[in-house]
Write a structure and sequence with these properties.
It is a single chain. Helices cover 32% and strands 24% of the residues. The chain is α+β, with helices and mostly antiparallel strands. The protein folds into 3 domains: 71 residues, Orthogonal Bundle (Arc Repressor Mutant, subunit A); 120 residues, ATPase, nucleotide binding domain (Nucleotidyltransferase, domain 5, 2-Layer Sandwich), CATH 3.30.420.40; 72 residues, Nucleotidyltransferase, domain 5 (2-Layer Sandwich), CATH 3.30.420.40. Helix 4 runs parallel beside helix 5.
Length: 293
């Protein structure tokens, strides 16, 4: 998997730390040496040593013994401490909100799903999300699992600008167009927040799984059929967004000019035809529409 390369600039300290944390997570219980971390991130050994020292000081990484090396003394191996901290995941779907609490290895330690009307407005949606995050972290504290919460990842239907953290004209919910969701939710939660399309988030999760099948060669497509239709693309281990960040937005291609009305305002969109077939229980027709039948 392409993990990217680091940059020796103070402004990118958190970026470089994230690179190292990602490699520690991928290494699992076997661990990884500082020299290997330097080689895979492109950082200098000195930079890696500083980062790993901070991670050890924060309790996020520990020594995991020594590993024999060729032509030198055995190398100290470091491994992640999965339970040392948590992160929050939020999926804002058209009719429900799912909140999860995960450890540093991505293992779910708490989850809750509640009804949600995505069209109810940003304030209502954010209030619901804030309440679910508080409930999850509060439950962990009551059960003796209180850990630092490092941030929140939010997934929702697109299209959206993941760099700016702003939804665009979400199909069926135009009121979200241009709303600064990432920054507004970060202010409410008091946590760093990242925002991405739900299909991209799902594809990335599959790419990061340590037990993911290797026959895809690090490249695959994730197809989502739910209250909407879309895809997430992974090429060489990284999410592919396209020049306009709209890769995977194929649900609103017109297939039938006089077809059923779609939430986007058009008629006969692939999404409308497929979901109508699913609603009728006609999975064969849904597969045919998708080109899989």
């Amino acid at each position: 998997m392409n993990t990217g390369t680091g940059a020796n600039l103070p402004a990118l300290r958190s970026h470089n730390t994230a690179l190292v944390l990602g490699l520690l997570r991928a290494a699992g219980t076997e661990g990884v040496s500082r020299l290997e971390l330097a080689g895979q991130t492109g950082l200098t050994p000195q930079a890696v040593s500083k980062i790993t020292a901070r991670l050890r000081g924060d309790g996020l990484a520990v020594d995991a013994g020594r590993r024999a090396s060729t032509g030198g003394k055995p190398r100290t191996v470091l491994k992640l401490v999965p339970g040392a901290a948590h992160a929050v995941g939020l999926h804002l779907d058209r009719d429900e909100l799912t909140a999860v609490l995960v450890d540093l290895a991505g293992t779910v330690v708490g989850a809750h799903t509640v009804p949600l009307d995505l069209g109810a407005g940003a304030e209502v949606v954010m209030e619901t999300a804030q309440g679910e995050v508080a409930a999850l972290t509060g439950a962990g504290a009551r059960e003796g699992r209180r850990r630092p919460v490092l941030g929140a990842g939010v997934a929702m239907p697109g299209p959206l600008d993941h760099l700016a953290g702003v939804p665009h004209r979400v199909t069926g919910f135009p009121q979200w167009d241009g709303f600064p969701l990432r920054d507004a939710l970060a202010a409410r939660l008091g946590l760093p927040v990242v925002l991405d399309k739900d299909t991209n988030a799902a594809a990335l999760a599959l790419a990061l799984r340590r037990d993911a099948p290797e026959d895809a060669g690090g490249s695959f497509a994730y197809l989502h059929v739910g209250t909407g239709l879309g895809a997430g693309l992974v090429l060489d281990g990284a999410v592919h967004r396209g020049g306009r960040t709209a890769a995977g937005e194929f649900g609103h291609q017109t297939l039938q000019l006089d077809g059923p009305l779609c939430g986007c305002g058009g008629r006969g969109c692939l999404e409308a035809l497929c979901l109508a077939a699913v609603a009728r229980g006609d999975t064969a027709e849904a597969a045919r529409v998708l080109g899989a039948g």
